[in-house]
Design brief:
The protein has eight helices and six strands, in the order H-H-E-H-E-H-E-H-H-H-H-E-E-E. It is an alpha/beta fold and 233 residues long. The two termini are 29 Å apart. Helix 5 crosses helix 6 and helix 6 crosses helix 7.
Length: 233
């Protein structure tokens, strides 16, 4: 699949997520012929910067297949040079028009960072690096009076969107030129649905829909509670 418009790319993700939630997946692009066709190159339509949680398999929850998604995963979708470089490669070399930060409710990395902030304890080994990457979001949530874990998760998703743009000049330039959009989505573990937490530019924001991109379904800029999505940047 070759999509160059970020809004259409996001609509395709929402359509696939709807199929996953309703138990009507198509499992596209998973056949032998498509696998062989991809041997000469890839043209993913979305980059997924997601949490490493085993329940957050992007190709499954968005009902996609080989060559559709360029996936980069770390605990708590924390960002480092390797992650940023991977995103820049997909956007500037492969021409991918959409970057998605994918978090989820009850995130263990967020819980660990909140506990470390509360106690002042330093996690052992390399866990400290994961926690350190989330702590700024814990502090930002606290300053806003947000205490529940899923509210903090939303803050962390939005913060990751902003950090991507602040840390990558290449990505920011692609967004400014209208060639790429960046959104933050939160996944509900039990329900299987995603909702928009943050988006830049605002025109990228697309709501979940029972429709399909090819069927021209109407979509608004609201989350699954009917609220307008928060715009980052």
């Amino acid at each position: 699949m070759t999509l160059k418009d970020p809004t259409r790319a996001l609509a395709e993700l929402h359509a696939g997520n709807h199929r996953f939630v309703t138990g009507t997946p198509r499992h596209p692009h998973q056949d032998a012929a498509h696998r062989a066709a991809l041997a000469d190159g890839q043209h993913p339509f979305a980059v997924i910067v997601g949490c490493s949680d085993s329940r957050l398999a992007a190709e499954i929850i968005f009902d996609r297949g080989l060559g559709d998604l360029f996936v980069v995963r770390t605990a708590g979708h924390t960002l480092g040079s390797e992650v940023l470089g991977s995103v820049e490669y997909a956007v500037t070399v492969l021409g991918t028009p959409l970057v998605v930060v994918l978090g989820h409710d009850s995130c263990g990395a967020v819980q660990a960072a909140r506990e470390a902030t509360r106690t002042g304890a330093t996690p052992p080994g390399h866990l400290g690096a994961v926690v350190a990457g989330v702590v700024p979001s814990i502090q930002r949530a606290a300053a806003a009076g947000i205490e529940d874990i899923d509210g903090i998760v939303d803050v962390h998703i939005a913060q990751t969107v902003q950090t991507l743009l602040d840390s990558s000049t290449l990505l920011a330039e692609e967004v400014a030129a209208g060639r790429c959009g960046v959104v933050g989505l939160s996944y509900r573990l039990a329900a299987g649905a995603v909702r928009t937490v943050a988006a830049t530019p605002a025109t990228v924001t697309v709501a979940p829909s029972g429709g399909d991109l090819d069927r021209g379904a109407d979509r608004t800029g609201q989350d699954d509670h009917g609220r307008a999505a928060v715009v980052a940047g």
